[in-house]
Structures are given as C-alpha cells and as structure tokens.
Design brief:
The chain is α+β, with helices and mostly antiparallel strands. It contains nine helices and 14 strands.
C-alpha cells in the first residue's frame, strides 16, 4: 500500500530520520506541504519496476442478427523504470560542532536536506536521463504525444489551439483536469511554478474567475489554494537557486520561447507513484536511510549520510498530463 512522506514523518521513532523526513515533507515555500511530501510512495523489491501499459481500448460495435460479432484487443506496451540512487554526505567541521554547539550541525543538516528536496523536485519535473544517466527522467521528458481528437493517447495539451503561446486559459486548465484520469487514484493535484500560481491568485479577484478558486488553511501553516477543488502544488527554486519551472519553455508550434507548463497528476492507483527500493537501514526496510557516521578518518569533520533508491511511475497514460504554452500574462476565461 502506498504511503506519503507526510504520513511517514508521523510514525518514525528514530530522531535523526524523523527530522530529515519531516524537513522533506513539510518544506513547502509558504507553509504548505512540499511536492515530495504529498506524492504516494510504493515499496518494491529488486532494482526496477515493470508494468504493462494499455495505450488504446479494444473498441465497440453492434451486430445484426446472425452476423458475427466484432472482436478486438487493447493495445499494450511494456514499460519499466530503474531505481536511481539519491545520495548525499552532509559534512560539518568538528571545530564548529565543538565550539558553537550541536545546533550548528542541526542547522547545516537542515539546509542540506532542503537542498536535497529542491533537487528532487527539479528532477521530478525537469530530469533528463539521456544527459545524466545516473538520474531519472522527469515529467517534461517522459510525457509524450500531443493530445487531439484523433490522438486520445497524447499526454500533452496545448493551452492555445494550434500550439502557440498565450495567457493561461481557464477553459484549457479545466480540460487538462478533465482529461487526467487514473483508476484507484486518491485524488489529483495541479503542479505549477510559484509565479504561475501568483497569476491565478490575481485572477481570483475577477468575478468571472474567482468562483473557481478557493483557499483553505493548511495544517502546517499558510494556505492551500484550489482550482475547481483540485489542490495547487508549487515548486520554486532548485538546489542551486535557479527556478525549476521558469517561463523559458518552447510552445507547441515552436514560435514562442517564453512559456511554462502546468501538470495535472492523478496520485496513487494506476496514476503517479514514487517507487522506492529496499534499504535495510531505513525505517521498515524500505526508503530513505539517514546514518550518523561520526568523524571522518581523513578530515576533522562529522558525516551524516543520506541515501534513497528512487524513481517514479505512472501506469496509465491518462494519469498524468501536461498543459504547455502558458505565458506570463493575465489569466483569461
């Protein structure tokens, strides 16, 4: 059964691992849970996960009296993802630990775990395995095909008809939500940049738009914004301080290079799941492990080691979809 880091952080008894898991799960930029914290996680044995993905349904038809029934089969494709190692040695000079107190190590560890979270969120959105084989592909790389009336398997929808860049159309956003489906999912999220969310917040003041947007307090502080009941989750900067989803993408027709995307993700079931491998030193024997290795043998520094064997999968091609070609302009109906 899939769980989330938010849920896991409430059950871990080891102080070091509980602290790291809590930072990963609760470090949303404005008090809301982080993207990593809300994604369901499946445990797997072995170093990869495979599944058979249905890409087209078998069809339907009537038969006249004494005529043979029509027949057909679904179209399938074999898919798999290999686990990748997310790892980091968190180093703190022994001098600082001894002269400034243990809080220095805790502060430095917190900063580095936040960098791990930011890097993972960038990887989930923008990862490109072809250029970095030790990493996994993100949403932008893995989602393929332009959705149309003749290509229902396409996972990419254009914000503007014809593929040009333009202001976010709420009609297109609603269509994105409607076309994202997954059996057994626990719900959907809308994933976007903070700047794109600000555009939606500004639109909430318009009477023709505001009724679709609601705000509710988060149990961790701040507010959760929803569009048509779907929670909006944001990513901001990566571990280097660069924007993860800036307005630098190319539109579908190739003419505009100042666009961004919005993703609708069905969580759990046959939709989006993180998959994590066995790790004997992790709580429950799976997932992320955090170990205090003590002092280095070669330098006077204290080492905390973090590792996590991870990837993600979406078994239903309808379970995750992308709206591209959104420019930094006022939202339209």
């Amino acid at each position: 059964m899939a769980t989330t880091l938010l849920q896991l952080s409430q059950t871990i008894s080891t102080p070091l691992e509980r602290g790291v898991t809590t930072i990963l799960a609760h470090s949303g930029p404005n008090g809301e849970p982080s993207l990593i914290g809300q994604l369901p996680i499946m445990n797997i044995d072995g170093n990869s996960y495979s599944w058979t993905e249905r890409q087209a349904y078998p069809g339907f038809g009537f038969a006249a009296i004494n005529d043979a029934y029509q027949s057909g089969t679904s179209e399938y494709a074999q898919q798999s993802v290999a686990l990748k190692t997310v790892g980091r040695d968190i180093l703190v000079p022994r001098f600082l630990d001894q002269t400034s107190g243990t809080q220095v190590r805790a502060t430095e560890s917190t900063a580095q775990v936040e960098a791990i979270r930011a890097g993972l969120e960038k990887q989930i959105v923008k990862g490109v395995k072809a250029t970095s084989p030790s990493e996994f592909d993100g949403l932008q790389s893995r989602l393929k095909g332009t959705f149309s009336t003749t290509n229902q398997t396409g996972q990419i929808l254009d914000n503007v008809s014809g593929g040009a860049g333009g202001a976010l159309s709420l009609q297109s956003l609603s269509r994105l939500i409607q076309k994202t489906k997954a059996q057994g999912s626990t719900g959907k999220i809308l994933l976007m940049s903070e700047e794109m969310k600000l555009r939606l917040e500004a639109a909430a003041h318009a009477t023709s738009i505001g009724g679709y947007l609601t705000f509710a307090p988060s149990e961790f502080g701040g507010e959760i914004m929803r569009y048509r009941g779907i929670p909006i989750v944001t990513v901001n900067e990566d571990e280097n301080g660069d924007l993860i989803m800036p307005f630098t993408e190319t539109s579908g027709d190739g003419n505009d290079t100042d666009c961004t995307s919005i993703y609708c993700i069905a969580l759990g079931g046959s939709g989006f799941n993180l998959v994590q491998g066995r790790n004997e030193q992790a709580p429950g024997g799976y997932g992320l492990s955090v170990r205090d290795l003590g002092e280095s043998q070669t330098k006077p520094e204290l080492i905390t080691r973090f590792d996590w064997y991870l990837n993600w999968k979406s078994e239903n091609f309808r379970g995750t979809r992308r709206l591209r070609g959104v420019q930094d302009l006022a939202v339209t109906v």
